[in-house]
Amino acid sequence: MNALFTVIYRWRVKPEMEGEFRQIWHIRTEKIRAVKESYGSRLHREPDGMYCAIALWPSREAWESTAPALPGDSEDEATFRATLVTTLPVIAMEVVDDLWSLPSTCG
User: DSSP code of 1?
Assistant: First the structure.
């Protein structure tokens, strides 16, 4: 198996800014996928309103890489941060076994 790497992010979002949060999360995730070559991310909303994103990377090194910079990200990051109440610590881990599969209706 390849050395896949998973990162879990969790945020409490200002209730009145959930739409903006989801939009800017999508924009930034698309940029990260294109520029940093991540495998993308899934955004989840927990029953209590907390958001969780699970991102998949080819390796820890790819995730930790600071180059290249995301285009126009300083403004995007400021918008993203303005939607947040709090950010929980990141959980970063190596994939040791993978049984995920997507049905043909996903994607």
Answer: -
Tell me the Ramachandran region of residue 20: left when phi exceeds 0, alpha when psi lies from -120 to 50, beta otherwise. Answer: alpha
Range 55-76 average pLDDT:
88
Contact 56, 37 (CB under 8 A): no
- The structure tokens 């930034």 sit at 28
Contact, 59 vs 5, CB < 8 A? yes
Q: Which amino acid is at 86?
A: T
Domain 5-94 adopts which CATH fold?
Answer: Alpha-Beta Plaits (3.30.70)
pTM (two decimals): 0.87
Each domain of the chain, given as residue ranges in start order, spans 5-94
CA torsion angle 57 92 87 52 (round to 10):
60
Cα gap 49→2, rounded to integer Å:
34
pLDDT digits (tens, 9 = 90+) for 8-49: 999 999 999 999 999 999 999 999 999 988 999 999 999 999
| Residue 30 three-state SS | helix
